[in-house]
Structure to design on (730 residues):
């Protein structure tokens, strides 16, 4: 019997739809994963957007106000101005004047937007298209060649960040840029940018750049000038017109073409651009005036401390006088020799200061820092002390060989004039007479006189000090002569008149120092008489300028230093010349090159001032008028004997050992009366400077005996009339 085939059940695994079901499951899993990925990505993106928005909003709320952003700066700017308001030098970052958006030339705005951020008006602080373009260039070239930073990002970096190329900094820069766009308008941001972006040479902002490169304010820029300035942002040092004019013009031409491509310039306007019309400003003086600024600026720590905002320092420097001072030195200084000049007005205002022949070669300021021997210019103090002690210009002295404590001074040329008057001795700078006068009044008295007139360096009291063996500074010697010119009243050199903010707020204003009378007016008149004679007929004849001049030459041994110091029409000037290594300079004397430099300068400095005659008429005090009568009528028993310190001693010349009886006159019997009070009358008579009954010391008639004198300047007892009933003993 045939077998009946039973029909087979379909194998579920072999059914046509089963295999696709497995694939569907697999496909549905992959789909789910993709969908989940998209969901999670979208969620993360949304969170990132929310995070960015929150960060931007928080940052925007924490941003400083617009006014504070305007005043923020990278370091302090100091503008130093001369007495006429002209700029001498700018130190630190220079921001110039703030130029409001409405006054910024349209060509400047268009040039900057075209070359730095063409879609500035369209993006929200960050330009995605610019970022994509920058990344593509990076992939193609292998390194970053194009930046994707917008103007807003650059502003954020300049104000809040640094230039480090890190991803973290770029993220913060982008957040800050969007925060700025949230807080401020496009015009405000562009105004901030154009007033703060760095253009090289220390210039921040269009006004500073325009003044530095073209010599005029930033609101007066031409198309060519705007293109040059806009081209600087990419590489300020490379495209600076003062460093490389050709590179600056080439870059500016690229800016012009970019403006034409952006539609801000028509082809005709672009073709009409001519960079030959651009005139670059002359470089500000960085040479001799820097000696003055180097002296002035440290004084800001005293007159205006703890000020970190931009300031303007208005100084006393006269540009005309400064140029004349520089020229006078350069034209008269011998080859290989340095020089210095300081000139002050009658109130102490420094009109000119030159500390060397070339600041670029050597910035060492010899006018205020170097210490050199003044030579015979030091005799100013010797004769001041002698005049105060009772000498007059007409008194007779003797020019002859003299030895003091084993020291024998010689005159220049080795000749001696014999009996002459004080005026002649000073005019011809007689060394032997100066030595005798110093020994007569005391070398300590000469040192005290120099200190009284502003000499700040150490002073020795050896006999040779009368010829200027103590080192001094030029500015100190100028001060001393200025005080003589001021009739014996203190004059303190100063260089800062006022300090202001860039908006004109006065932070400091110079106030004159309290004046003191250093010597009586008749002493100042007498020394002026001597100084005038030294120029008119003596060693300083080369310093004549066609109007009254009073001054003194100075020459040190072996012609190592040459000086001339003098005054006329209220201006006092000192000139020094010599080598830094103190080697001899053949032919260098105070009456030659220094005197000629003084004359060349003073002719310019005094040109617009009226001619002034000196007051040289002596109005002697009463105690100097009748010395002989007083000497004959005085009782010798009434004389006091004092040492150079004012301590009373007995007639044997010995001071009290313990000082207990100081101030006690001793009579012939040896009995000491009660101590006398040290009242004003006693002090006046003891110093010999006042008192109607005090006779004047007569002029010396002969040099001090061999070996006379001591370190304090007092010689052995000599038969001289007392000064104010006081005899000074060693």
């Amino acid at each position: 019997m045939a077998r009946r085939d039973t029909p087979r059940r379909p194998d579920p695994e072999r059914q046509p739809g089963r295999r696709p079901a497995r694939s569907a499951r697999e496909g549905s899993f992959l789909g789910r994963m993709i969908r989940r990925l998209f969901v999670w990505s979208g969620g993360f993106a949304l969170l990132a957007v929310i995070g960015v928005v929150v960060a931007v909003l928080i940052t925007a709320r924490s941003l400083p106000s617009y006014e504070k952003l305007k005043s923020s700066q990278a370091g302090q700017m100091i503008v130093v101005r001369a007495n006429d308001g002209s700029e001498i030098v700018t130190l630190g970052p220079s921001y110039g004047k703030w130029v409001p958006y409405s006054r910024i030339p349209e060509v400047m705005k268009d040039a900057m937007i075209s070359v730095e951020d063409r879609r500035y008006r369209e993006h929200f602080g960050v330009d995605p298209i610019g970022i994509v373009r920058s990344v593509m260039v990076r992939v193609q070239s292998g390194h970053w060649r194009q930046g994707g930073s917008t103007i807003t990002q650059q502003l954020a970096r300049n104000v809040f960040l640094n230039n480090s190329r890190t991803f973290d900094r770029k993220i913060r820069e982008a957040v800050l840029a969007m925060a700025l766009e949230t807080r401020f308008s496009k015009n405000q941001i562009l105004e901030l940018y154009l007033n703060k972006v760095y253009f090289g040479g220390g210039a921040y902002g269009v006004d500073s750049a325009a003044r530095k490169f073209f010599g005029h304010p930033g609101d007066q820029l031409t198309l060519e000038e705007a293109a040059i300035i806009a081209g600087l942002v990419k590489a300020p040092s490379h495209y600076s017109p003062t460093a490389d004019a050709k590179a600056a013009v080439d870059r500016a031409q690229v800016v012009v073409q970019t403006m034409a491509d952006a539609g801000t310039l028509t082809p005709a306007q672009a073709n009409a651009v001519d960079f030959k019309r651009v005139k670059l400003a002359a470089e500000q003086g960085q040479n001799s005036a820097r000696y003055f600024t180097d002296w002035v600026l440290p004084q800001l720590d005293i007159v205006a401390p703890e000020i970190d905002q931009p300031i303007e320092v208005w100084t006393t420097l006269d540009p005309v006088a400064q140029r004349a001072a520089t020229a006078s030195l350069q034209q008269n200084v011998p080859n290989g020799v340095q020089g210095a000049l300081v000139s002050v007005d009658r109130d102490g205002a420094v009109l000119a200061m030159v500390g060397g022949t070339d600041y670029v070669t050597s910035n060492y300021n010899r006018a205020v820092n170097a210490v050199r021997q003044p030579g015979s210019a030091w005799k100013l103090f010797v004769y001041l002390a002698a005049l105060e002690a009772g000498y007059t210009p007409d008194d007779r002295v003797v020019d002859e060989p003299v030895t003091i404590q084993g020291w024998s001074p010689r005159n220049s040329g080795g000749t001696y004039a014999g009996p002459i008057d004080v005026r002649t001795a000073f005019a011809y700078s007689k060394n032997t007479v100066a030595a005798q006068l110093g020994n007569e009044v005391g070398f300590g008295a000469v040192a005290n006189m120099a200190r009284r007139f502003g000499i700040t360096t150490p002073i020795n009291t050896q006999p040779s000090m009368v010829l200027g063996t103590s080192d001094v500074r030029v500015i100190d010697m100028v001060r001393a002569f200025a005080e003589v010119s001021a009739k014996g009243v203190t004059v303190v050199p100063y260089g800062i008149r006022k300090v202001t903010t860039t908006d004109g707020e006065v932070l400091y204003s110079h106030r004159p120092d309290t004046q003191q009378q250093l010597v009586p007016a008749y002493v100042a008149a007498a020394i002026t008489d001597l100084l005038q004679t030294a120029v008119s007929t003596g060693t300083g004849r080369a310093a004549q300028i066609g109007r009254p001049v009073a001054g003194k030459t100075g020459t040190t041994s072996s012609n190592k230093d040459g000086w001339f110091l003098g005054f006329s029409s209220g201006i006092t000037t000192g000139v020094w010349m010599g080598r830094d290594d103190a080697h001899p300079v053949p032919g260098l004397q105070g009456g030659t090159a220094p005197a000629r430099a003084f004359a060349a300068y003073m002719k310019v400095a005094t040109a617009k001032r009226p001619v002034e005659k000196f007051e040289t008429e002596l109005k002697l005090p009463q105690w100097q008028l009748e010395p002989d009568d007083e000497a004959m009528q005085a009782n010798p028993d009434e004389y006091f004997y004092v040492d150079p310190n004012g301590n009373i001693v007995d007639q044997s010349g010995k001071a009290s050992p313990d000082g207990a009886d100081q101030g006690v006159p001793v009579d012939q019997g040896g009995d000491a009366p009660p101590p006398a009070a040290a009242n004003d009358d006693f002090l006046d008579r003891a110093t010999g400077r006042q008192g109607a009954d005090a006779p004047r010391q007569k002029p010396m008639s002969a040099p001090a005996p061999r070996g006379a004198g001591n370190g304090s300047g007092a010689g052995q007892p000599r038969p001289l009339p007392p000064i104010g009933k006081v005899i000074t003993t060693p």
Remarks:
- The first helix runs from residue 18 to 62.
- Residues 626-646, 651-730 have pLDDT under 50 and may be disordered.
- The first strand starts at residue 78 and ends at 81.
